[in-house]
Write a structure and sequence with these properties.
6 helices; Rossmann fold; Immunoglobulin-like; eight-stranded mixed sheet
Length: 286
């Protein structure tokens, strides 16, 4: 498993009964996690000192219960700063487990010895975008949500990257890649974090199991002649590491050579020494 173990402003303190106890900066949040199917004694005093608790509803969804939490706050990872805010579907605007991937591709960018162009698709609030830009790449950030792109730009300003070569685009990712093929544009690295399910601007339905492989093939057409890497993340149960690896091998290795790795990604749990699984990632690299 690839483990994001270098956080100082974030930690999973403990896990029990379908929930994970987390520290985000100086604030303690309790959120549901479907991986936590065990029920162990809740001995850590932080269980009783919550700043917010997201309660899952038996009818689907859920809601936050706030005790003492600001509307927004910030945490840092290395030289990057992220604005956090609790919002629907239990999220805070950041997936800390992705730091293990940020470190991986940042090293590839820094040691490339040439200018590097990166495309970040389904780019959310910009964690990968900022990591790539901080490593020296020029980045195209694409997400269909205007609010998420605005949030990502705010993170870039907080991180001192407001003048970095980043293009911020509100667009449907599939349509954007199709246009890039027609325009003849190419990228040295592609990062994507596709949703399990979504709708396009005209109501087009995205189901990852049906759409992701054809989309990978499309994206292969906009890789440069000497690409550095391709990263795909999945939080969908059916897309295990072996599936991600096979897709990358099928789409990229025959054309570009290189090799593929795929693993679960996770976060260390402070109180028990376990690693909490948090999805999977597939990496192709030259």
């Amino acid at each position: 498993m690839w483990v994001a173990k270098d956080w100082k402003d974030y930690e999973v303190i403990d896990t029990s009964g379908g929930e994970k106890l987390e520290r985000w900066g100086k604030y303690i949040l309790l959120r549901p996690d479907p991986q936590v199917i065990w029920d162990t004694p809740r001995k850590n005093p932080a269980w009783r000192k919550l700043n917010a608790h997201y309660h899952r509803s038996s009818r689907g969804g859920g809601e936050w219960e706030f005790f003492d939490l600001p509307r927004t706050w910030q945490i840092q990872y290395r030289d990057l700063t992220f604005r956090l805010q609790p919002f629907q579907f239990k999220h805070t605007g950041l997936f800390p487990e992705q730091a293990v991937n940020w470190d991986w591709f940042s090293e590839k960018i820094r040691t490339a010895g040439r200018p590097v162009k990166i495309l970040n698709l389904f780019a959310y609030t910009g964690g990968a975008t900022l990591a790539a830009a901080a490593a020296g790449a020029s980045v195209t950030h694409v997400d269909a949500s205007k609010g998420m792109v605005t949030w990502a730009r705010e993170n870039s300003i907080a991180s001192g990257l407001q003048d970095a070569p980043i293009r911020w685009l509100v667009d449907d990712c599939v349509k954007f890649v199709e246009r890039e093929i027609r325009r003849g544009n190419h990228y040295d690295g592609i990062i994507m974090d596709p949703p399990s399910y979504g709708r396009g601007p005209k109501g087009e339905i995205w189901k990852i199991e049906e759409k992701v492989f054809p989309f990978l093939r499309l994206c292969a057409q906009i890789l440069s002649p000497r690409p550095l890497f391709f990263l795909i993340n999945s939080y969908t149960t059916g897309l295990q590491p072996a599936v991600l690896a096979y897709m990358l091998e099928t789409c990229l290795v025959k054309q570009f050579g290189g090799r593929v790795e795929a693993e679960e990604i996770g976060l260390p749990v402070s109180d028990n020494g376990l690693v909490l699984p948090c999805g999977a990632s597939g990496r192709w690299m030259n």
